[in-house]
Automatic annotation (TrEMBL), chain A:
Protein name: Universal stress protein
A Pfam family: Usp
Signal peptide: none
Transmembrane intervals: none
Stored InterPro entries: Rossmann-like_a/b/a_fold, Universal_stress_UspA, UspA
Domain UspA: from-to ranges: 2-128
Record-stated family: Belongs to the universal stress protein A family.
Organism domain of life: Bacteria
Taxonomic lineage from the root: Bacteria, Bacillati, Actinomycetota, Actinomycetes, Propionibacteriales
């Protein structure tokens, strides 16, 4: 079995990565790490560079987990890219990081997480960034 | 006493530009210019085209011209930012900058590259504005001796020279030019009053408004073209190294030492190349780049290709200096030498201001305020550019579909506001689609706009010459000045083939098949 983690080099992405590593250790599963961008802006901090991908890989290997890394521009459809990756491989769980969105922001840009949650054929683990007050 | 009167005029210009409202136009112009300069695919020609319909509502043309000039040279500052940080030139004039600039950024010297670009732009902008200040009026009075045949010859030279140098094929360029000339012909003949190419419709009797052509080609067509190339891998901007306190601290002592000569050489190249019809800033930036590389090799310092600061300093100075150069023929002869200048000329025509030798007499305040605004604008850009660089880069995060949709809506609104009729909007859209396919099929746009704007002028001068000479066509070659310009026009057709010709004479293989330069925008 594989665990698909949608990784972005942000606190949300790191939280998802940590949760995915723990889950993989627990289930003895390998991890498929997917990093993607809508690719419609000239710069996108969520499109990881080589250093960030290497760091994420090292973090997972520390936990003794096998990792496959996929990176591609998803042409405006990040949720679709995640769902497609989940369908293509033998994925049993999707791990996502969530962030707070304003209603207007969701109206204009939509919500990737919401689409994955509703459309995924496998269970989805949604992770929040631990707040500093907890 | 010419010098003194120039100072008096210039001081008067400063008086007008420091009026809070005009200062605001200057700040707005350079800020907009910076932003569109940073965005690849969106240039000053597009921006001025987009704002052109709005200026119809201006009571005072001075503000509009201050803003347009600010957009033009602000874009030259902004273009370097994208070149250096993400290796995607924001403007065609910044292509040369990207070669060394991005290498510098990768080696952790982004701040130094940005600083030498900004300070070099300021130095070049200021020096070339000083040159413009002293050169413009004498050239204007020289031009007052021009006769109809000379004007005909010089408009022909401008059209042919720009056509020869932009785009990848001379034939395509000339076809574009002919399309432009044709659009310019539509409407009533100014001398005989006969309708031409109106296809029997009353709508076309007034001709196609040049603003509609400009908005269609530059705003709608260009936007469709860049939008059609939407897919791209997002970049991560190079990280800025931790800043030192003062802006001068961005550059080390050796950086200053290596930068100041390229700045001056770049200025010396940019100004004259802006003034001759060579399509704007692209030619001098590449010349500056290769000269700096040769200079560095001579000194035994071969850092080029690996982040040499000279390769940023020279081209960036050249592109800013070229702007003041572009203004020389634009103001004194009414002659645009690049696409953006052609769009600015259309703005002059909207306000019934006829650039040319009389401009300095009739519109003294306008001209000198415009020139004074260049000094102020350059200063504003220098102050804003580096400290706020993180903010400027944010515009690159805008999702491009939203950006392009916004531009298209704004373009249609602008055309609609001109006439209040859907007919003009539809016409602009049709021209936009034509422009899109022209870009797609590699036909340059600049010749079209030159044809539309200069075509009617050329025709008028041509016929006036013939009327004066009683129909004797030999006037164009018997007057020495006209003859020289016409010979230059013919020679301009061979400029793109220069490398091949030189190689043939030397008996070697040409290194480049053709001299080509992308579209100036």
């Amino acid at each position: 079995m594989k665990i698909l983690v949608g990784y972005v080099p942000t606190p949300e992405g790191e939280a998802a990565l940590t949760a995915a590593a723990a889950e993989a250790e627990l289930r003895g599963a390998s991890i498929l790490l997917l990093n993607t961008s809508r690719g419609d802006a000239y710069i996108d901090a969520r499109y990881a560079n080589a250093d960030e991908l290497a760091a994420a890989e090292a973090k997972l290997r520390e936990h003794g987990v096998e990792v496959t890394i996929q990176q591609a521009v998803s042409e405006g459809d990040v949720a679709g890219a995640l769902l497609k990756a989940a369908a293509a491989e033998d994925v049993g769980l999707i791990v996502l990081g969530l962030r707070r969105r304003s209603p207007v922001g969701k109206l204009i840009l939509g919500s990737t997480a919401q689409r994955v949650l509703l459309e995924s054929p496998v269970p989805v683990l949604a992770v929040k960034v631990p707040s500093p007050h907890d | 006493m010419i010098g003194l009167s120039v100072f008096g005029d210039l001081l008067h210009g400063f008086g007008t530009v420091l009026d809070p409202m005009n200062l605001l136009w200057a700040i707005l112009g350079v800020t907009l210019g910076m932003l569109v300069g940073i965005l690849p695919g969106i240039g000053p020609a597009l921006t001025i085209a987009l704002l052109l319909p709005i200026t119809f509502n201006f009571s005072d043309p001075i503000g509009a011209f201050i803003m347009f000039a600010g957009i033009y040279y602000g874009a030259m500052y902004g273009g370097s930012t994208t070149s250096i940080l993400i290796n995607t030139p924001g403007e065609s004039a910044s292509v040369a900058t990207a070669i060394e600039g991005h290498k510098m950024a990768q080696k952790g010297r982004a701040r130094a590259a940005l600083a030498t670009a900004a300070i070099g732009s300021f130095v070049a902008g200021t020096i070339s504005t000083v040159l413009l200040t002293f050169v413009a009026k004498p050239i204007g009075s020289l031009a007052s001796h021009f006769q109809a045949t000379d004007y005909f010859a010089i408009t022909l030279l401008a059209m042919v020279a720009v056509t020869a140098i932009v785009g990848h094929s001379l034939v395509r360029g000339l076809l574009s030019l002919v399309v432009g000339l044709f659009i310019g012909l539509i409407g009533l003949d100014s001398l005989s009053g006969a309708p031409r190419y109106t296809f029997g419709t009353l709508r076309l009797l007034d001709g196609i408004d040049v603003v509609i052509v400009i908005v269609g080609l530059f705003a709608i067509g260009e936007t469709l073209h860049v939008a059609s190339k939407l897919r791209s891998t997002p970049e991560r901007p190079a990280v800025l190294e931790k800043g030192r306190r003062l802006r001068t601290g961005y550059l080390t002592k050796s950086d200053w030492g290596r930068s100041w000569k390229p700045w001056l050489r770049g200025t010396a190249l940019g100004f004259p190349f802006g003034a001759i019809p060579s399509g704007g800033a692209e030619v001098p930036t590449f010349l500056s780049y290769s000269i700096e590389r040769r200079q560095a090799r001579k000194k035994g310092r071969d850092e080029f290709g690996d982040g040499a600061i000279e390769g940023v300093a020279g081209p960036e100075a050249a592109n800013n200096a070229s702007f003041s150069g572009v203004l020389v023929p634009l103001l004194t002869l009414g002659l645009p030498t690049s696409a953006t200048a052609a769009v600015m000329l259309a703005a002059f025509q909207i306000f019934n201001v006829q650039p040319g030798p009389q401009l300095f007499e009739d519109q003294s305040t306008l001209v000198w305020t415009l020139i004074a605004s260049l000094y102020i604008g350059n200063l504003i850009l220098l102050i804003m550019n580096l400290p706020l660089i993180q903010i400027w880069v944010q515009v690159l995060k805008v999702p491009r579909p939203l950006l392009y949709a916004g531009i298209l809506v704004f373009a249609c609104l602008g055309v609609y506001s001109l006439s209040g009729s859907g007919y003009e909007v539809l016409m602009a859209l049709v021209i936009g689609v034509v422009g899109f396919f022209m870009r797609k099929l590699d036909f340059p746009i600049a010749p079209v706009i030159l044809g539309v704007i200069l075509g009617p002028t050329m025709e008028e001068q041509f016929r006036r010459s013939l009327v004066i000479s009683n129909g004797d066509a030999s006037v164009f070659v018997t007057r020495p000045l006209s003859a020289v310009i016409i010979v230059l026009t013919v020679l301009a057709l061979f400029v793109p083939y220069l490398p091949r010709i030189v190689a043939r004479i030397r008996g070697t293989q040409p290194t480049r098949d053709r001299l080509t330069f992308g579209e100036d925008d």
